[in-house]
UniProtKB/TrEMBL annotation:
Protein name as it appears in the record: 2-succinyl-5-enolpyruvyl-6-hydroxy-3-cyclohexene-1-carboxylate synthase
UniProt-recorded Gene Ontology molecular function terms: 2-succinyl-5-enolpyruvyl-6-hydroxy-3-cyclohexene-1-carboxylic-acid synthase activity; magnesium ion binding; manganese ion binding; thiamine pyrophosphate binding
Organism per entry: Mobiluncus curtisii (strain ATCC 43063 / DSM 2711 / V125) (Falcivibrio vaginalis)
Pfam families: TPP_enzyme_C, TPP_enzyme_N
Family to which the UniProt record says this protein belongs: Belongs to the TPP enzyme family. MenD subfamily.
């Protein structure tokens, strides 16, 4: 059965919905739970942690969904029907091998995947894909449940899924009988959750902390009445094809470029650092009142301030790019330009006057123009974040070293907190994004902004999963046939630990892995979950792992070194990338 259940009307909170769903499944005999941390499945995490504390279920937290799926399979095979819980995106796909095994072995395994609301599918929203039906004919039952489902219908769905796992329901597909699957087997519940994704007390505590931080910030917000007005160009993944046609007109018009670090647009002379931080703090009032037009190239997905900006309905928000490469998160896109050259012609006529307009009430402190205001606000944000030794300062050092080295050297960035930190601090060094000599026939953007050559920046932002990051960098280094530097967090490292190993007679690339060890999934600390009780946050979100990173790398044949200070990092980065090497950058406890 493949079913979508929802109703319209007043919705219960995501937390209440998650608690009821977990309670109903426990009542059906699902008492062994394997939970993989994420943001979208956080309501389930809070609910499970509470039920585990009252001894109503056995809870196990794992960071690798594939491993967790097989652990749940093992528990179910041993006679204890088990549930695997994960967040949206590639996390769900990692369960497929275990589901296939469960289907053929008749093992009652339940996959409970969290999801964004169905309305966001196909819009370019972060970590959003078509999860319903992903397991095909391998599951005995599948349902897609949406926010607002009634208690009665939810109870009915849970009863159906339990019956299907126990073999008490008809198979979900007519063809299943031909495949001779046992009656018992796996099932899939896909549950969509809407924000907020934390209990009220955590949300309130987070809001109070955020307000306190803002009140104590040294930087005064810009006054809209004393600030210019203008246009922004925002560039995310899949935006590179628009760069050649729009580069000059955007430069001449004085339009600030808010570009993610893996894009060609980050090479633009108007590419800003610290833009998301500025947009959410010192420039928030200016963004609200003085922004006249937004042009979005590709799919920007990194930060909440930018997501809010491109979802606005009170100003024209336009997209540019080929079909399937743009966003429409809120159904608010005023115009879509499939041809960047046509947009360039239009911008030549209308963009420059608004982009450099003077303030309504100029003063001696007024920024020179719209562009310089964004540059000043962004640089102030970066200066504050890099003043002390931490992730931002380490990232800035790594970026500067990589982009200024004389030999070809590529950079691969982890998809979670790592790329967001680099997005904040990365300077707009010109990068000639040309293919390596051995790959001269490969199509690639060729920038002529400056003398730096051969530096490509890669990341996995299609669905923004942390899985397979080391393996992906390994593959890119092999294909490019030049040195590759990968930067990722400690959780991402442990998630892809198996990628350190290789066959004894296989070719290895020149790959340097830099692990930023900040003691777990710190990205959750920047969200509402950071205000949860310390024990809950540590177990369900931070998930610090057992194991010595350098020793694990050495056991797989890598050269490995620990870095504990800015000076040590600078010295280590001066060494050429040869063979397989790893740096563990240990950051101060936070």
């Amino acid at each position: 059965m493949d079913d979508t259940r929802q109703r319209h009307g007043q919705d219960a909170s995501s937390q209440q919905y998650a608690e009821e769903l977990a309670r109903l499944l426990v009542q059906q005999g699902f008492t062994h739970w394997f939970y993989c941390p994420g943001s979208r499945d956080a309501p389930l995490g809070y609910a499970l942690n509470h039920l585990a504390a009252s001894h109503r279920l056995d809870l196990h937290v794992r960071i690798d969904e594939r491993d967790a799926a097989f652990m749940a399979l093992g528990a179910a095979r041993a006679g204890h029907p088990a549930v695997l819980v994960m967040t949206s995106g590639t996390a769900v796909g990692n369960a497929l091998p275990a589901v296939m095994e469960a289907a053929h072995a008749g093992v009652p395994l339940l996959i409970l995947s969290a999801d964004r609301p169905a309305a966001l599918r196909g819009t370019g929203a972060n970590q959003t894909t078509w999860q319903p039906g992903i397991f095909g004919e391998f599951v005995r039952f599948a349902a897609d449940i949406q926010p607002g489902i009634t208690s009665a219908v939810l109870s009915e769905v849970v009863s159906e899924v339990a019956a299907a796992c126990r073999g008490e329901a008809p198979p979900p597909h007519p063809a299943t009988n031909e495949k001779q699957f046992p009656a018992t087997g796996p099932a899939h519940l896909n549950a969509s959750f809407i924000e907020p994704l934390a209990p009220p007390e955590a949300i309130e505590a987070f809001a109070a902390t955020s307000a306190s931080v803002s009140a104590n910030a040294r930087e005064e917000p810009f006054d809209p009445d004393q600030s210019p007005r203008g246009t922004l160009l925002i560039a995310g993944d899949l935006s590179d094809a628009t760069y050649a046609d729009l580069r000059e007109v955007v430069k001449n018009a004085g339009i600030p470029v808010l570009a993610e670090p893996q894009t060609a647009w980050r090479c633009h002379p108007h590419a800003m650092r610290g833009y998301a931080k500025a947009a959410g703090t010192t420039l928030s009032a200016v963004v609200e009142h003085n922004l006249e037009r937004v042009i979005v190239a590709g799919r920007p997905t990194l930060t909440r301030p930018i997501t809010r900006l491109i979802s606005r309905r009170d100003i024209p928000v336009e997209t540019v790019g080929a079909p399937g490469t743009t966003v429409n998160l809120a159904g608010n896109i005023a115009r879509h330009w499939t041809d960047a050259a046509t947009l360039a012609c239009e911008l030549e006529k209308v963009a420059k006057p608004s982009s450099v307009a003077t303030p309504r009430h100029p003063t001696a402190e007024t920024p020179e123009n719209w562009l310089e205001m964004w540059r000043a606000a962004g640089e102030n944000a970066v200066a504050a974040l890099t003043r002390d030794w931490g992730f931002h300062r380490a990232a800035q050092t790594i970026w500067d070293s990589t982009m200024t080295v004389s030999e070809p050297l590529d950079l691969y960035l982890g998809a979670s907190l790592t790329i967001r930190v680099f997005d904040t601090v990365a300077r707009n060094f010109a990068r000639n994004l040309i293919p390596a000599p051995e790959q001269a026939d490969v199509q690639s953007v060729n920038h002529q902004d400056g003398a730096f050559g051969g530096h490509r920046v890669f990341t996995n932002r299609g669905l923004a999963g942390i899985d397979g990051t080391i393996a992906a960098a390994w593959g890119a280094a092999l294909a490019r046939r030049q040195p590759m530097r990968l930067v990722l967090g400690d959780v991402s490292f442990f998630h892809d630990l198996g990628a350190l190993c290789h066959g004894r007679v296989e070719t290895v690339p020149n790959l340097q892995v830099i692990v930023i060890n900040n003691g777990g999934g710190r990205i959750f600390g920047s969200l509402e979950h950071g205000a949860a009780p310390a024990d809950t946050f540590t177990r369900m979100f931070l998930t610090p792992q057992v194991g010595d990173i350098c020793e694990l790398a050495r056991a797989a044949g890598w050269q490995a070194v620990q870095i504990g200070s800015p000076a040590e990092l600078v010295a280590a980065l001066c060494q050429p990338v040869r063979g397989l090497s790893l740096m563990e950058v240990i950051l101060p406890s936070t």
